[in-house]
Amino acid sequence: LGIRSPIYFILKITRSNFINIEQRQPTRVDELARITGVTSRHLLRLFRQELDTTPVQFCLEIRLQRAHSLILNTTMALSDIAAATGFNSRSHMTQRYRNRYAETPTQTRLN
Question: Among 17, 24, 90, 98, whose Cα sits 20 to 30 Å from the Cα of 37?
């Protein structure tokens, strides 16, 4: 795994995104590019080439997967899960969650 391989950048972004989740900071391409030490254009190109997505979508997917895990495996309130995964509100998380999983967090928890 070379230091400039696309996977290197993706792993570095994944690690940095968990910091962003805890600090509830929005994920921005220019910030991710700064963290990884490449230009925004290069970072976008790498993500399109390797994952067929954007860095922001990739980071959103990580947040949604974490929210999904918390919904299934804890009794945390949905508003607390939204806050813990970097969403501004429960309704914002619910909207994004429904787009991704085709059901609401409440429906997931009940099933």
Answer: 24
